[in-house]
Design goal:
The structure is a homotetramer of 388-residue chains. The first copy, chain A, has 388 residues and is of the alpha/beta class. The first copy, chain A, has helices at 4-12, 42-56, 74-83, 111-131, 152-169, 195-205, 224-233, 259-271, 294-314, 317-325, 329-341, 345-354, 361-368, 370-377, and strands spanning 17-19, 61-66, 87-93, 135-138, 143-144, 175-179, 189-190, 209-214, 237-242, 282-285. The first copy, chain A, has one domain (14-377): Divalent-metal-dependent TIM barrel enzymes (TIM Barrel), CATH 3.20.20.150.
Chain lengths: 388, 388, 388, 388
Amino acid sequence: MTDLSAVKAALRGQSIELPSWAFANSGTRFKVFGQPGVPRTPQEKIADAAQVHRYTGIAPSVALHIPWDTVDDYAELAAYAREQGVRVGTVNANVFQDDDFKLGSVTNPDPGVRAKALDHLFACIGVMDATGSADLKLWFADGTNYPGQDDVRARQDRLAEALEAVRDRLGPDQRMLLEYKLFEPAFYTTDVPDWGTAYAHCLKLGDQAQVVVDTGHHAPGTNIEFIVAFLLREHKLGGFDFNSRFYADDDLMVGAADPFQLFRIMYEVVRGGGYDPAEGIAFMLDQCHNIEAKIPAQIRSVLNVQEATAKALLVDAGALDAAQRSGDVLGANAVLMDAYNTDVRPLLAELREEDGRDPDPMAAFARSGYLEAIAAERVGGRQAGWGA
Amino acid sequence: MTDLSAVKAALRGQSIELPSWAFANSGTRFKVFGQPGVPRTPQEKIADAAQVHRYTGIAPSVALHIPWDTVDDYAELAAYAREQGVRVGTVNANVFQDDDFKLGSVTNPDPGVRAKALDHLFACIGVMDATGSADLKLWFADGTNYPGQDDVRARQDRLAEALEAVRDRLGPDQRMLLEYKLFEPAFYTTDVPDWGTAYAHCLKLGDQAQVVVDTGHHAPGTNIEFIVAFLLREHKLGGFDFNSRFYADDDLMVGAADPFQLFRIMYEVVRGGGYDPAEGIAFMLDQCHNIEAKIPAQIRSVLNVQEATAKALLVDAGALDAAQRSGDVLGANAVLMDAYNTDVRPLLAELREEDGRDPDPMAAFARSGYLEAIAAERVGGRQAGWGA
Amino acid sequence: MTDLSAVKAALRGQSIELPSWAFANSGTRFKVFGQPGVPRTPQEKIADAAQVHRYTGIAPSVALHIPWDTVDDYAELAAYAREQGVRVGTVNANVFQDDDFKLGSVTNPDPGVRAKALDHLFACIGVMDATGSADLKLWFADGTNYPGQDDVRARQDRLAEALEAVRDRLGPDQRMLLEYKLFEPAFYTTDVPDWGTAYAHCLKLGDQAQVVVDTGHHAPGTNIEFIVAFLLREHKLGGFDFNSRFYADDDLMVGAADPFQLFRIMYEVVRGGGYDPAEGIAFMLDQCHNIEAKIPAQIRSVLNVQEATAKALLVDAGALDAAQRSGDVLGANAVLMDAYNTDVRPLLAELREEDGRDPDPMAAFARSGYLEAIAAERVGGRQAGWGA
Amino acid sequence: MTDLSAVKAALRGQSIELPSWAFANSGTRFKVFGQPGVPRTPQEKIADAAQVHRYTGIAPSVALHIPWDTVDDYAELAAYAREQGVRVGTVNANVFQDDDFKLGSVTNPDPGVRAKALDHLFACIGVMDATGSADLKLWFADGTNYPGQDDVRARQDRLAEALEAVRDRLGPDQRMLLEYKLFEPAFYTTDVPDWGTAYAHCLKLGDQAQVVVDTGHHAPGTNIEFIVAFLLREHKLGGFDFNSRFYADDDLMVGAADPFQLFRIMYEVVRGGGYDPAEGIAFMLDQCHNIEAKIPAQIRSVLNVQEATAKALLVDAGALDAAQRSGDVLGANAVLMDAYNTDVRPLLAELREEDGRDPDPMAAFARSGYLEAIAAERVGGRQAGWGA
């Protein structure tokens, strides 16, 4: 039997980080469809993110993306976030949109370009120092499009060198989180294509380096929860970039494509101790809204993670263990599915009401008039983001 | 034994169509890397395409993309092409970059948007009338991102209605070529996701409707040459959009990722009669150069198709048939591989020299100074293409 | 609002067919793990299948597989089934386990082998005549392993010829259901690899030929519910072989790998009229139990289909249509997800109790002692099935 | 410029290991098609393997599979091999075909089964001691079919424990080679599913543990040559199981599905120093012949590896490096492709003639009458292998 009050307590401690860029325009290579009220400044993105936290209560931090969120005074930006009821979270380094990075950033064959990329990474650590952010998230678009284009192994040497330099620059309470991705924008080799590559580098870098699992960055058929379980066992799981996909890196709302997979991932997180704050896992969203309204889509994603977490917490661990140990294939599967098939929405509504929130965050936000207000106010200017 | 003079004659008759947009800037959703000398007008794209034909001798036509290649006077554009030594080929309709098409074009739930999309398709037929183009290529980005977002079946009804309207507008010597694509930019359903869907619609539309196979538009593991063989048997193969991919729709240079697959495709084309001009197959390139120089990359792609074709023509049909009929698995495979393993570059160099061309088109173009000239001349203005 | 009594009535009309071979031993190429009590005769398989119907009430028919289920007197077998409370359903033709079929059956390059295969198909129609079965299910393992091994197009000619001969032999109330499969056991080309190929053949064969969708037979990323919706629109969907997979044709229990996909499929069935008995869709299970107890696994699969169907029936069609028409992406998705997230198990338990059944079929069967009884009784003899 | 005499010398030093099981019957889960002359004893398998070496000159060792190749006196078997002109190579442990291993071997939830599995692994080391084999190859079919079936993390603990026990038993000149595989026969989780998992375990196990790359064991889209380059950089690549695939683990002849990929792999081997005997890479074949004659298919595979190696050795390293460093995407790709497009068959024929062999191994073996002889002699008895 699962203890419902313990489940509720665990759910109250949940913390999901929102990406500032999810509030700005984004899209596919074919078209970026704009939306009314799109933020024009980092502050406006933070204000939008604060709305998500206001209605869900479990999204208290916002990740920055540099240079998209460049400001003159980062301490001031952090203070602004606190005023909005949230805080600045992970700092994401962008070394893929400068013309110099056409053939790579930290793995570029040109030492001058590599130095430029490294300078940007150092600058991001500077932003962390100013905002109090603890985590530097590193995703490298580096790779090649054609066989022979560059030396695969030399690029690993360059990568290792850059990562070491970053590690040496980190403060004692700061981490570097290394993200992997199978492909895109590189189409032949990618320099950090899978968890094994990220893990191997992080192992050498030491305790301040950990792996980030973006749920959309795997080959078809990859069992993501296995990776999660494995990295937790090694204490090398640094965090998640949650989103969902049917095909490639579709970057759809979390839980939209395969809610059962999201549940299985959250189950392994819980089972492996990753839900314990002491483990330090950063639960981040990273999705690319193209056709849906951004703030409600972030609320929906947060709720989807929350529902999957509630189901994972509801798994009867004792019954599952007994069935597993006795080799009862159908019985063990049934214990897990019983939790998944439970409709946890009433439980979560109750939880919200107990905490003084509206039981239906989507409806409450819709009623608030916020979307209409920003559409009216945010006229002119240019959105700060993606293709900015 | 294969008759080499017949092979050469067949190779002399080859005709590959270049896409105007391949000469303009393009890229991934993360970044479009610009290049010096990028064309600013449809005329400049045609001039660049003419260079490819000049050095290869087998790329005599250029596909247009509307509205990227919009001009006031299409007849004049066609005349310009002829002056350059090429001709205007297929007209490609773009109904995916207008804000109104966010939720689809011809399958949009809004009838007003559907009408707007159809008007654009009619306008493209107008361009065909003016330029003498015979083929209208239809690729629809239409689809949905989320389960439930729209009615999958109703979208098929709308699609069928639009396609019929287009068919009714075609002149007697015009065709419509329907392209399919598994995903992107739609990430849950795509309205024409596979050859079966395209085929079923074309069958109802009649003889003027045929299927286009883009070699990058399939699920992993799909046997493309099977589709080619099947459609040829049904006389429903209208043409190809050649490019190559390791992962999704990577749009790399033709033959760069899997030259053996390209050979197998060309073998089925030859075997199924698709190389006979009477069959009317349009051999088009459609690739998206992001990091490589565009004109040389088009030359490389044309040469790769030519080499694969030469190998396909070299297959000893008699020996293959005998081995197949006798159930000699290893023997039949060996006949095919013998052709593939042949280095046809000397044969093709000889062919070019016999025709008064430089035996090495890549080197000849590089020596010509054309790239340096356009980089110097084409300063200012804005490229006409992709995100234009 | 959905009418619950209508949902219940619809669920009472559900009919899922069980495969006789699912009760016999089966496995992977690496090992077939046997189980105690495995059926030694077709009658014992039917008896086991009848247990599934007894506890679920919605599995009233059993598919045969010839020659695995060969008996001297098929009318007697049909009578035996009726005594057990079920009936004989689809007849499945096996033309892949005879040594002569090494290079194919109906598409074999050897005309003698083709004739032998056709004779077997005719014999299966004879079984249908004797048992009163209405449907002949055709899955061909035919294909090639190596490029060049056989002529892809000639194999289509041979396939078409065989299918026409089968069609001509069918009685007026009989159907042929053509199944497709991407790969395995053929690893280069498969002669009916996808729905498009099956559809094209069925179209020419006329009204008595329809396509079967096996949910495990697609390339990664294929949107199966799109195919279902498309075939229903064309009235060419003949039925399903339900099972589930994470990777290839894993043949796991239905709904075990992706319950959300199963729901989406059943939603398209309902939406497209396929749940109406008049449409004649055969809902069959086809899974390959290797490590789990077979009868309980079939009960579990039937329940999983039932739960997915209940959720599909609960979708608020009016609300969905309104959201779709207004372009409300998040709203439309939410309507669908609301049904999916509903825990329908209490509703189904209530339904069973109203019908005089145990509310928990798995537990009731476990209590019955049937498994223990057959393990004790069925000693000696050889199982009739798979590798028999 | 590449030095041809150095290329020839390198090719003369090549050594490819043959799997004993490739000469026995094998197949798919649907059917194992037998062949005349199939070996009935380990000795007959070795005799067949010796034929491959006789005609190619580069296949001097044969891997054993225990228990398929169980004999009373392994020293005698090793002596027999030497008489045949070959030697016993890697010992492959089979812990997947005993009924006790239904839910796993070394990761089974039952400690008794785990002990039994470990005993078998120790017995395999005994075979190594007796035959002088240096390498123990470990492939575990262990995994689960259903979510919840067993504890993913506990299975890693059990795996680590077993691997340590094996490592402790190894002699100082022996290695353990850990193979990974994405799926099959397990269909939900596999305990060693990818190179990252194998690498992480090997790292902890120390210098005597290395990773084996089976070219058919990856998710669609995986860049295998990247893995090869990465493991070589870490000195953790122990060897290859070569075969080829279009879909899953098809186990086709090496180089049959994607000869360009095989070339790219061999290029990374050469570039990363893996072709140097001092690196100790074991180049093994592992394929599953179902419809093709086994000995000729092994010859074909050896020749395909040899051709890919020759092309890899022909790459102009200086020109490639210069183009890569200057960021010349098309130029660098062209250097690599120039080698790949070269027809190396004349060079290899010349090499064989210089060494006193027939220039055409396939034809020479066919002329030898060996196949006819074994078909006549090996009558009766039962094949020793796969499903034996």
